[in-house]
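Kindly inspect this one:
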Amino acid sequence: MKRRTFLATALVGTGALALGVTLYRPPYVRVNKALDRHHRLLFSLLLPVVLDGALPQTESLRIAAQNRTLDAISDTMVLLPLDAQAELEQLLNLLESRLGMLLLTGSMTPLLLRSPAQLIVMLESWRHSYLDMMVIAYQGLRELIMASYYACPEHWPRLHYQKPALFG
């Protein structure tokens, strides 16, 4: 076999494998995109990791704070400039696809199947990456989550912040 034939065969085989992995969706990872328009499932996985220590310890209060933050994230995403919305949407779509996960994290394991420790390692590798794109992705996700969480007035007392009184 000639070297060129071998390389061409390897390239075609890799492309076919990548296409097959991208098109294959296991039944346990199916997400109804009509219901998950604002990537709530993805953000619900990242919230406990990014907001570690900030969320309430009581389970019912924790779930309420997470749901309120997910709503705030959806509201915040609409207010972003159009180019920032497009970049964020592209990043979130990559995180939800198997091929995108392979490109961004080096693993095709969906975020849904990763433990919080694995998510922390993934985000820390983005944070300290030598690629500016990865650092920007980390900072964008973190800032969006943090800003949406602390935009809710019920979280201000933990910061010892009081809304200024204009008249009085």
The radius of gyration is 20 Å. Residues 21 and 98 are 7 Å apart (CA to CA). Confidence is low (pLDDT under 50) at residues 31-35.
